[in-house]
């Protein structure tokens, strides 16, 4: 019975002999915890020691099996294999490495290398970050591919049908590569690139090595080349940074990037300078697979950095065409979708440089100036741009843009202080609002282009606040000092089509210019009053510069499927009622209108003949001698022949019976049906003209049925 206590005392003595004095007196749970940690550390040390001594070569088989299962790709190592801690970071070496591609890829292997030798930092790895202290790669090859739909890629491992994830490159602080290449295939972007890498001895003693790379490829069937180098710092020099220099050329675009990187593949925290030049900036953004407006020849510089989520172009400045540009641009991928955010400003914008924004060919504008906006189609001049939207590219990205222009240089259109807010959200492009100052008035536009549906639909709502006509039309002969009249306007159209011309050619809506009471003074008075008798009378009395007194006026058109008909053209002045009929076509760009003035007072020498406005948008023509005037002249000659020369003047007498307009419906922009005389009677002299001809030269249905007569010369 006395043996058991003796044994217990022996065991207790043994435990105390192996337990440090500071721990022997501690509570039992603490002693157990400390011993557990000590055993775990001892076990880890044993593993570390075994791996360090054996270099982990015995893990080759398990590594291939585990990696193949995790990646769902075949992973093999044909030569030497090492995986161990040295002393803390993970040392990994493998020879003849192969990682296969999914079956849909063009290349059989995603990655191959004769040798890969790297040291991976252990503490960042614990927190899910892949950082390599250094990497040696010999005869390596990487094949990055996206499928035809752009939904899958070869760098997203696991289930081969899993949607592709963004490419994340491990951070490599220093590296040496030899005989290695990278191939990138992107069918949706129509992009192919083949880049080779080679390390040479750096001549600068501050750097250990110089990784040089050259490559070529195609983008949308257009070839490009690139070349550059990356200098890795000498470890013995503290504070060294990797120095990058890159140049890419293609499709008339030259891109230069230079500066420093914290690590060879670490872009976050980089300090770079970016420069680009070319003949059309849209070609540059093609490399991102997005569509931006074209420009004339350009060159820009900026600072460039990456903050982990966005590329930031700051201090951007340069020129496009004859215009300047400054501001900032951010490019990121929130929610996995590419997004551009820009804040840009121009001090002086040449009107010719606006052309490419709305679809004109920038090269034609460079070669021909404003004349480059006009093309001949089937023998007719055409000015509306018909460059189609790249709907596929619009659907790939979102955008937010704020753009301001201080002044526009234009010969005959005083435009300034443009302020544009543009948004692109899932194929819905909006310009809300676009504001500008024109001759002291304000243009406000809300434009929405919806490309979410198969057929692109565009809605235009453009408004002009009351604007002095003297300033607005000064370049057309208006005297500012004698013109108090103003004009306001609104254009509301909605159409379908993937170009500006097509959307207008298939648009419907209304266009209205309203002229309230005021004076209008012109250097060409016969075009203001359109009354030959009044003009002659003023000419004989030397009173050519007396202002025209305008009571109210409306120049309005109803647009149906791209064809605009006057609805109405009605201007009431002190001495005349000016009436217009006809219209124009966005389809053929033809103009077929006539304007005449009926006198309110007796006029002896009045031709009373319409002035025709014909031709095309690009080449309008005014015809003040219409068939009606020729007919009157013929009638006058006939009367004079059978009676007397004085009797022949009867053909040119205007009895002065024009009915003054009620200004209420005019100033309200009402249609022709709502117009009234000053006595309240419905007008019967507006709204019965023909419309312009269609693109194939045929007149509208209303013209074909014979219910409307041709308006030129016939009222």
The gist of it:
The chain is of the alpha+beta class and 715 residues long. It has 17 helices and 34 strands. It has a 32-stranded mixed beta sheet that branches. It has a two-stranded antiparallel ribbon with strand order 19-20.
Given helix and strand content, the structural type is alpha+beta
- Main sheet overview: 32 strands, mixed
**Poorly predicted regions:** 524-544, 629-653, 689-715
In round numbers, the mean pLDDT is 80
> What percent of the residues sit in helical stretches (DSSP H or I)?
10-25%
Give the total of beta strands.
34
Number of helices: 17
**Given the C-alpha coordinates, what overall shape results?**
elongated
Cα distance spanning the termini: 140 Å
Strand content: 35-45%
Alpha-carbon Rg, integer: 40 Å
Your description of this structure?
With 715 residues, this protein is of the alpha+beta class. It has a 32-stranded mixed beta sheet that branches. A hairpin with a 4-residue loop joins strand 8 (180-186) and strand 9. The longest helix has 27 residues, at 28-54. 30% of the residues are buried.
Secondary-structure blueprint:
Layout (H helix, E strand, L loop, with lengths): L2 H16 L2 H4 L3 H27 L5 H12 L3 E3 L3 E5 L4 E11 L8 E12 L1 H5 L4 E8 L2 E5 L25 E8 L1 E7 L4 E11 L5 E13 L2 E12 L8 E9 L2 E9 L9 E8 L2 H5 L12 E9 L3 E11 L2 E10 L5 E13 H4 L7 H7 L6 E3 L2 E3 L8 H4 L2 E13 L5 E11 L2 E11 L2 E10 L6 E12 H4 L13 E11 L3 H6 L1 E9 L2 E3 L4 H5 L2 H10 L6 E13 L2 E11 L2 E10 L5 E9 L11 E6 L2 E5 L3 H16 L2 H4 L14 H5 L33 H4 L11
Parallel strand pairs: 5-7, 6-8, 18-21
Antiparallel strand pairs: 1-3, 2-3, 3-4, 4-5, 4-6, 8-9, 9-10, 10-11, 11-12, 12-13, 13-14, 14-15, 15-16, 16-17, 17-18, 19-20, 21-22, 22-23, 23-24, 24-25, 25-26, 26-27, 27-29, 28-29, 29-30, 30-31, 31-32, 32-33, 33-34
């Amino acid at each position: 019975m006395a043996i058991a206590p003796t044994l217990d005392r022996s065991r207790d003595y043994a435990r105390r002999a192996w337990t440090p004095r500071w721990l022997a007196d501690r509570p039992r749970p603490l002693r157990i915890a400390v011993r557990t940690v000590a055993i775990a550390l001892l076990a880890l040390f044993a593993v570390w020691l075994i791996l360090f001594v054996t270099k982990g070569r015995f893990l080759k088989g398990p590594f291939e099996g585990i990696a193949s299962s995790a990646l769902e790709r075949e992973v093999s190592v044909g030569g030497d294999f090492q995986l161990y801690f040295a002393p803390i970071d993970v040392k990994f070496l493998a020879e003849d490495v192969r990682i296969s591609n999914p079956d849909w890829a063009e290349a059989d292997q995603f990655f191959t290398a004769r040798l890969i030798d790297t040291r991976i930092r252990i503490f960042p790895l614990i927190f899910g970050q892949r950082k390599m202290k250094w990497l040696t790669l010999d005869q390596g090859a990487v094949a990055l591919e996206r499928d035809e739909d752009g939904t899958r890629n070869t760098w997203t491992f696991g289930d081969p049908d899993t949607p592709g994830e963004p490419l994340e490159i491990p951070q490599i602080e220093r590296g040496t590569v030899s005989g290695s290449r990278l191939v990138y295939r992107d069918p949706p972007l129509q992009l192919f690139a083949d880049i080779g890498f080679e390390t040479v001895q750096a001549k600068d003693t501050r750097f250990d090595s110089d990784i040089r790379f050259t490559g070529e490829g195609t983008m949308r069937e257009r070839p490009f080349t690139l070349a550059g180098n990356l200098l890795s710092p000498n470890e013995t020099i503290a504070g060294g940074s990797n120095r990058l220099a890159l140049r890419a050329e293609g499709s008339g675009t030259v891109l230069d990037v230079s500066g420093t990187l914290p690590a060879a593949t670490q872009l976050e925290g980089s300090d770079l300078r970016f420069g680009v030049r070319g003949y059309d900036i849209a070609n540059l953004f093609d490399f991102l697979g997005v569509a931006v407006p074209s420009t004339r020849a350009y060159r820009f510089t900026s600072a460039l950095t990456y903050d982990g989520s966005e590329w930031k172009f700051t201090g951007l400045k340069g020129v496009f065409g004859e215009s300047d540009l400054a501001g900032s641009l951010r490019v990121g991928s929130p929610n996995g979708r590419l997004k551009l955010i820009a804040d840009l400003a121009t001090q002086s914008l040449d009107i010719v440089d606006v052309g490419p924004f709305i679809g004109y060919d920038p090269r034609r504008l460079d070669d021909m100036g404003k004349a480059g906006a006009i093309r001949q189609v089937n023998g007719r001049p055409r000015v509306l741009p018909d460059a189609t939207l790249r709907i596929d590219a619009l659907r790939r990205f979102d955008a937010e843009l704020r753009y301001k222009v201080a002044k526009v240089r234009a010969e005959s259109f005083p435009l300034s202080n443009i302020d544009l807010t543009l948004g692109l959200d899932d194929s819905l492009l909006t310009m809300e609002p676009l504001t500008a100052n024109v001759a002291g008035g304000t243009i406000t536009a809300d434009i929405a282009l919806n490309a979410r549906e198969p057929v692109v639909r565009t809605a235009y709502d453009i408004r002009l606040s009351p604007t002095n006509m003297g300033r607005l039309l000064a370049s057309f002969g208006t005297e500012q000092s004698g013109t108090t009249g103003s004009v306001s306007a609104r254009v509301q159209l909605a159409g379908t089509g993937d170009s500006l011309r097509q959307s207008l050619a298939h648009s419907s809506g209304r266009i209205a210019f309203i002229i309230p009471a005021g004076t209008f003074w012109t250097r060409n008075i016969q075009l203001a009053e359109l009354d030959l008798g009044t003009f002659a009378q003023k000419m004989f009395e030397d009173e050519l510069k007396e202002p025209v007194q305008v009571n109210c006026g409306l120049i309005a058109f109803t647009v149906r499927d791209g064809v605009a008909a006057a609805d109405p053209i009605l201007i009431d002045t002190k001495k005349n009622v000016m009436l217009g009929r006809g219209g124009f076509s966005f389809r053929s760009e033809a103009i077929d209108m006539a304007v005449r003035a009926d006198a309110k007072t007796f006029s002896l020498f009045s031709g009373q003949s319409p002035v025709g406005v014909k031709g095309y948008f690009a080449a309008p023509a005014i015809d003040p001698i219409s068939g009606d005037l020729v007919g009157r002249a013929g009638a006058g000659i006939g009367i004079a022949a059978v009676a007397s020369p004085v009797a022949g003047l009867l053909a040119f007498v205007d009895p002065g019976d024009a009915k003054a307009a009620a200004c209420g419906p005019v100033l309200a922009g009402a249609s022709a049906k709502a117009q009234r005389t000053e006595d309240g009677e419905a007008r019967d002299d507006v709204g019965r003209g023909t419309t312009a001809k269609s693109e194939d030269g045929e007149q509208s249905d209303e013209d074909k049925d014979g219910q409307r007569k041709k308006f030129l010369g016939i009222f």
